[in-house]
Amino acid sequence: MGNIIQMIMNLFFGGNQKKEVKELDKAIKVKDNEVKELEKEVKVLEAKKKVNKKEVAKPIVKLVPKAKVNIEELANDWIEVLKKTAENSTSLSNYEKNLNVLRKEYISDLHQIYTDLIQQQRIDSAYISLQKQITNRKQ
């Protein structure tokens, strides 16, 4: 069969043209191989892309629902802290210094408490009355 192709090529093409056709065939085969290799690489990349999409779609961290906080209990606890600090304080300045340290420890609780205006008012009232008690002790 190869002889038939060569005979047909000899009929249509001359000697130099025959060499050019062979070179073109070789170039076409090389390009075909390159295309096949690129297609394989594309398939590999698409497979990786699918894997990456699946990995991204999965949640990495599971969200834990926050426990419902009873703001009234937090307010009661803070009022108790205020009372204990007032009992142990000899002056208003000493009371404020001690409270500043405690406020840093209770900062997250205080932020939650101050979202409820009623509890905020209860704390403010207790704070003012404790300040008056400390002032009256001095006299």
Short description:
The protein is mainly alpha-helical and 139 residues long. It contains 6 helices and no strands.
Report on this model:
The protein has two domains: 2-57; 71-138, no CATH class. The protein is built from six helices and no strands. The protein has helices at residues 2-12, 15-57, 71-88, 92-105, 107-113, 117-138. Helix 3 packs antiparallel against helix 4 (92-105) and helix 3 (71-88) packs across helix 5 (107-113). The protein is rod-shaped.
Number of helices: 6
Mean pLDDT: 78
Give the helix proportion (percent range): over 70%
Number of domains: 2
What are the low-pLDDT stretches, counting only 5+ consecutive residues below 50?
A: 56-61
Large-scale geometry: rod-shaped
**What Rg is obtained from the alpha carbons, in whole angstroms?**
43 Å
End-to-end separation: 125 Å
N-to-C order of helices and strands: HHHHHH
DSSP, total strands = 0
| Structural class based on helices, strands and sheet pairing | mainly alpha
Largest sheet properties: none
Oligomer: single chain
Q: What is the percentage of strand-forming residues?
A: under 5%
Attribute tags:
mainly alpha; single chain; 83% helix; 139 residues; 2 domains; 6 helices
